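WARN retry 2 of 3 for item q-0093 after timeout on previous attempt; input resubmitted unchanged.
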Amino acid sequence: MQDNGKLWCALIPCSDTETWAVPQNCLAEIVTLHTDAEQPPAQLSWRGRSVPVLDMGAEDGSQWLQPSRDAGLVAVFLGLKGEGCEYWGVAIRGQGLKVAPLVPEEMEEVAEGVQEYASAAFMFNGVLCQVPDLDSFQKKVAVKQMVA
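OK item q-0093 returned
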């Protein structure tokens, strides 16, 4: 969604130190999983489908389960047709999940901050945001499913 030069993006915290910035139309849904599990599941049953879930923040100890709600969140992404999985998810860890209008004047490119899986990085309101290569992630997920 774009209006007046603004691109609406979902800012998804994947760990305490990592936030993804993705166009809103790449997301199928943010799913609330009511559970007492400390870690997100490897697979999620969503709308009659089994959706693989990536966890980017398990190693840094960032919190997935929100104890006050007895729930955790997973962002379900729309996959590209013909790439092995229709949908795939990413565990949401940490704080700061939101949809925000990104205006180029409010963003500062940070070329040295780009992670290996991202195509770009920028600062927005004091947060380093990664623009993940969603196609590559989908392919990795599809390969993992074929091997499993």
